[in-house]
């Protein structure tokens, strides 16, 4: 059950890199981090354009002295202050994540990084080692993991209610980029440009989300995959705007994933379906308060958020059943766990107990998945093990 009131003695001193004015995802971070008073935004290098970043930071009410031209200046200046930031969120285009994460960890900060964690496997491996060596939390913002019905699906699998898991279907297929919108939209342009996006477009941008959800809920691990990727808008090549992935999963299960930006008519199209020997669950992020559940020989049911029949892990609602909860609530749930994991207050550990949040290990798995998909597709959809030999 949701607990209101002061959850930490002191909110974490928090800064941001990226997420500037007009960015797609900056507001989501600021809303989620500050919703429960667990983090306080005190500093930022919000924009690739220093003047625009400073103007934006001051418009948010920050001390102009703490609106920095770039992340290096911010980490150095904040480290020199007794009240300097303890945590930083990185919400910049993909190819910059590695260098900024590395500098942040070296500056002794806990880090929340956007997905994909990095654009190369070796970079993600290095960050994992660095976060362990520095004993700092490096978390990855898989924001959909905070939905209550996602936790319910996970709990049902863990309790064995679905039997042995056989099939995991994953999808994130929207239709916003069916035409060459990048001509007039910088936020799409960097996504279809290898230097900023990395070796993939929709695989890193979209598939990493539903892959992560599918593995979280099923509790399985990806063993090998075969990927077919297409650039239906030709100018996007070599980056894909559609990807179809077949998977062999642990325990003899199989999986499939469809990621697309050209699924005309679809708003978000993010779903998973996990099928076991006794039952199945299905969830769609456009109807996040419902979970379709079926057991062999019985009619399909619809579990609703906020009810007493749900697993306790799925009952951390901010508002009772009947009122719809949504995207921002899911993000705030994830940020709550980040704050508890990053705070040095003993009570924070207790509050985190039994709760799960997306870590650097999940980020590394996502990067491996992304890189292997690109390699498989470029080798004629050859089957490849997830892990390098
Ligand atoms: N978790 C999610 O659901 C989700 C959703 C959208 C985007 N993302 C991820 O968030 C990241 C940002 O995506 P976006 O859509 O907000 O991009 P965007 O292009 O809309 O915004 C990027 C912002 O970063 C700033 N920036 C770029 N380089 C910078 C640098 N070196 N230092 C400081 N600021 C810099 C830009 O000025 C801009 O304000 C990407 O990695 C993307 O994959 C995640």
Ligands and ions found: nicotinamide-adenine-dinucleotide
Q: Looking at CATH, which topology of the domain at 147-317 and 364-378 would you report?
A: Dihydrodipicolinate Reductase, domain 2
Number of strands: 14
Oligomeric composition of the shown chains? single chain
Q: Termini distance? A: 45 Å
**SSE run:** EHEHHEHEHEHEHHHEEEEEEEHHHE
Structural class: alpha/beta
Q: How big a fraction of the residues is strand?
A: 15-25%
Label the CATH architecture of the domain at 147-317 and 364-378. Answer: 2-Layer Sandwich
CATH class of the domain at 147-317 and 364-378: Alpha Beta
Q: Looking at the structure, what is the overall shape? A: globular
Under CATH, the homologous superfamily of the domain at 147-317 and 364-378 reads Dihydrodipicolinate Reductase, domain 2
The largest pleated sheet is described as:
9 strands, mixed
Runs in which pLDDT lies below 50 for 5 or more consecutive residues are none
Total of helices: 12
> What is the alpha-carbon Rg in Å?
21 Å
- Helical proportion, percent range: 25-40%
Average the pLDDT over all residues and give the rounded result.
Answer: 96
Spatial arrangement of strands, main beta sheet: 13-12-11-10-6-9-8-7-14
Description:
With 389 residues, the chain is an alpha/beta fold. It has a domain at 147-317 and 364-378: Dihydrodipicolinate Reductase, domain 2 (2-Layer Sandwich). It has helices at 26-34, 50-59, 71-79, 97-106, 121-134, 148-158, 186-189, 194-197, 202-218, 327-342, 346-352, 360-378, and strands spanning 12-18, 39-45, 87-91, 110-113, 138-140, 165-173, 222-230, 242-249, 254-260, 270-276, 279-284, 290-295, 301-304, 384-385. The strands form two sheets. The chain has a nine-stranded mixed sheet with strand order 13-12-11-10-6-9-8-7-14. Strands 2-1-3-4-5 form a five-stranded parallel sheet, sandwiched between helices. β4, α5 (121-134) and β5 form a beta-alpha-beta unit. The termini are far apart. The mean pLDDT is 96. The protein binds nicotinamide-adenine-dinucleotide (NAD).
């Amino acid at each position: 059950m949701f607990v209101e009131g002061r959850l930490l003695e002191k909110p974490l001193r928090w800064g941001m890199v990226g997420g500037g004015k007009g960015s797609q995802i900056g507001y989501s971070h600021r809303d989620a981090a500050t919703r429960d008073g667990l983090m306080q935004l005190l500093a930022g290098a919000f924009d690739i354009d220093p003047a625009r970043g400073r103007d934006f930071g001051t418009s948010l009410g920050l001390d102009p002295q703490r609106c920095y031209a770039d992340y290096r200046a911010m980490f150095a200046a904040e480290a020199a202050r007794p009240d300097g930031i303890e945590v930083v969120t990185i919400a910049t285009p993909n190819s910059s994540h590695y260098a900024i994460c590395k500098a942040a960890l070296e500056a002794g900060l806990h880090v929340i990084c956007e997905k994909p964690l990095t654009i190369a496997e070796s970079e993600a491996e290095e960050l994992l080692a660095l976060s362990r060596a520095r004993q700092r939390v490096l978390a990855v913002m898989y924001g959909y993991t905070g939905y209550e019905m996602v936790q319910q699906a996970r709990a049902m699998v863990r309790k064995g209610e679905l039997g042995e898991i056989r099939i995991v279907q994953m999808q994130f297929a929207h239709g916003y980029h069916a035409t060459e919108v990048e001509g007039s939209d910088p936020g799409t342009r960097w996504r279809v440009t290898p230097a900023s996006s990395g070796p993939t477009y929709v695989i890193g941008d979209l598939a990493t989300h539903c892959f992560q959800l599918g593995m979280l809920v099923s509790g399985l691990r990806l063993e090998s995959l075969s990927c077919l990727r297409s650039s239906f808008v030709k100018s996007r090549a070599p980056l894909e705007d559609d990807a179809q992935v077949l998977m062999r999963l642990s325990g003899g299960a199989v999986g499939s994933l469809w990621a697309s930006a050209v699924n005309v008519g679809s708003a978000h199209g993010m779903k998973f379906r996990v099928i076991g020997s006794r039952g199945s669950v299905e969830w769609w992020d456009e109807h996040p308060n419902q979970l379709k559940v079926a057991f062999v020989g019985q009619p399909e049911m619809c579990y609703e958020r906020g009810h007493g029949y749900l697993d306790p892990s799925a009952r951390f609602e901010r508002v009772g059943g009947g009122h719809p909860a949504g995207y921002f609530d899911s993000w705030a749930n994830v940020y709550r766990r980040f704050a508890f994991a990053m705070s040095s207050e003993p009570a924070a550990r207790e509050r985190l107990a039994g709760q799960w949040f997306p870590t650097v290990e999940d980020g590394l798995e996502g990067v491996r998945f992304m890189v292997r998909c690109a390699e498989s597709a470029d080798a004629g959809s050859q089957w490849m093990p997830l892990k390098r030999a």
